[in-house]
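WARN retry 2 of 3 for item q-0093 after timeout on previous attempt; input resubmitted unchanged.
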Amino acid sequence: MEALTGKVVFVTGASKGIGAAIARAAGAAGAFTIIHYANDKAGAEEVAANIPADRRIILQAGLHTNAAAAKLWADAVGWKGRIDVFVNNAGGRALLREANDEGVAAIASGPGGRRDVVEHRCLTRQAHRRSRQAIFDQIHSLREAGNSIGDIARQTGFGSRTIRKWLKFDAPPERRAMALKPCSPPL
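OK item q-0093 returned
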């Protein structure tokens, strides 16, 4: 892993599983580590145990409301004044709202804003859209080849309901990208 000495790394869902492993690795690499948890305080404390106290902070938030997400984000940025690396392990896509070029500039100039982080977020969105298109194309080509919905489900790993839904559309269904989710912080 590239040295993270002096970088501020914010990991949501860091009390167990992949989030815990990422937070541990960031701490071991010298990062200032923000360890978020929703319910498993003991797990978060266990992750923090091997990171020096001056290089870690544990933050709790349920991420069920915009206010909770906004407070979590503000507390995370407020700890060191910035976030260099954001690992959105618990918040799903909700903490990564859509942004156009004007949005990138506005977000990057805000408190704790980093243009490279925001640009990465936009590239992640674009990659997600391309992957949805590839999945959509695969489902439709399998159906056109005469495969049953059950066969398509087995081959793609998606449920039959999802396959039926996607077969009704001429393009991948939209993800309501502009709809705020309960855990979206204000940007």
